[in-house]
Task: structure prediction
Amino acid sequence: MDSLVETQWGGSPPGAKPPPPSLAVLVPFDASLMQLRAQFAQKFLELAGLLQSNSRRARELAAEAHRATGAETIALCQRSIERLQAILAEAAAVSRMVEVSSGRMGAILSQLQAVVVPLRLLTKLHTRLKIVSVLSRIEGGRLQGSEVDIAALASDIDHLATEVQTRVDGLFDTAISLLPMLTKGMKELDRLAAQGREHTAQLTRCAETVLQPAMVQLEASKSSAREIDEHFVDFQRATDRVIMSLQSEDLARQRVEHVQEALQRVRTTANVGEDATASAGILALQRAQLCDTRDLLCESLQTIHKGLSALRPVVKSLVLRTTEQARQEASQGERLIPLIEEGTTSVSQTSRECFLSARSIVSLVDETVPAIASMTNGAGALQAIASSIHLLSLNATIKTAQLGTSGEAMSTLATELHAIIASNRPGIDAVLAGLDGIARALTEICSVRDGSGESSMLASESDHHLEQVLREFADTVRTSTAETDERLSTIEQMGEALEKDLRAGCELASHGEPIAEGFDKEIGSLDAAFESLGFTAEMIARNANRTRSEDLTAIYSMESERLLHAQIFGSATAETASPSSARDSVDLASDVELF
Amino acid sequence: MAKTILRVDDSLMVRQMVSFTLRAAGLEVVEVENGQDALNQLAATKFIPNLMLATESQPEMKLKRKAAAATGWMVKPFDPPKPLGVIAKVLP
Result:
């Protein structure tokens, strides 16, 4: 017989003498195994308690570190930066509004000047129509009694002449009155545009004076926050490894329970007088289980020790880096405060001036827009006039044809109406084109004014709000900077307390001897029982010296125990595990199954 | 409102470690030691995903638990992120 384990469950080792049935030696095991379970459970529960308290402390330390490195200022900093960026965007919109308004107003003025000349010519149109109307009436009188009604035509021409006079004169009067208004407005617009440009540029400069260092402060705070989080993730990851090792206690408890059950079974067998030799293999396996459970617990304690040791530099590094960064940020904060304070005043003033200019431009545009808009409405009337004259000329031609040889005079009138259209068409087209250009420029002005008008209004309402945000920002940076020393002192104390606890945990985990001794005592008692059953010490020693890695299937009856063994002792330790290995990207496939 | 997990385990150590892991992730945990206490706690609950945390991983054991209406199976010892991942899946 080479090894007791090879016999497994039942059967005498080949070549061995049948052991005498003296199983009464197993009776004291139950109580001592209970004590052993309580002993290692207490140790592991103490370690679990320490780990939980350390983890809470680490969380508090990380939170304090976040505060010390300006986590609270991040939100305000972000708010202030966003507000300043919004101000700059509004300033850009206003600047665009000023440029577009100025440019398009200039275009309107040019178009208007171009429209005035043909309009002046068109003001004479109604006179020519009146003449045709009078001649028509005369011809109508001459042809009285004829079947062709010339009087109606004369009346239509007369009516049209009146309409033309009203419309064209109105259009001309509006254009004439708009010219000085627009010329004056353009001068004012140019002045306001120049002022607006200057204010916008100044506002941009002021905002950037605050914005740039604030952005630096924000980035520094964010970077610190990231680094603290990374440290905390390292801490969590190492804690996770310790949690896995602590669960060995549960497995060990189950195994010792199995040993207790097996021994009970052997005793029962002896009581009922069955062949005790059949139980020898069971006892051999229980011995192996005790040996391996002892080693499992001792190795788990070593792993926990390593895990807790690995946490110590993480804590030290967290405290050290937090201190460095908090001091650096406090120093940056001290430089930032006067910049914010100066910036607050100048940004507020400049933005107010800038938006006042913008509002003046909007008012100026608003004043001129209705008049220009009413002028562009005249385009429709001009089109209608041109069409009406054309219709009248056709009507005159028809009447000429109806009159036959007596309609020669009417033919002359029809020709005159054609001539009126032909001579005024270029003027009408020129006016229509001018009005179209004015309408398009007006649409652009209204569009850009509506767009920037909203932001200007917003700026007006939020002047006070902006000041408040910037002052809060300065106050927070000031308070945070002033509290740095106090916070760092707290962090140092928290770090020391955590370090002390981790040392205590390491100390606790490093003393696995009493557990090993407890197991050894049980194993020794079992060996004595073996001896009394007729097995040799050499066989037992051979069994005890077997290494775990040789054949896990011989040691662990359950696959999950073998996996556990490989997981705890075969894979990376807490020290070598990738510290930031994805806690978030969990592979559930290996040992998790959802039905 | 935080999700509540009822943790049933006869092992104080495993109960502590599971609860610690889940609470750190913001979940509420009620701990009981045995099945009867668990049933008493669950009287008023309608939908109960049932996750087994077990040492055994043999297919026949899993099939048995599946037949007994278990939602999923997780092998002990657990790596703390795993129960969190599983809970996120069964209690989205």
Summary: Chain A is about 85% helix and 0% strand.
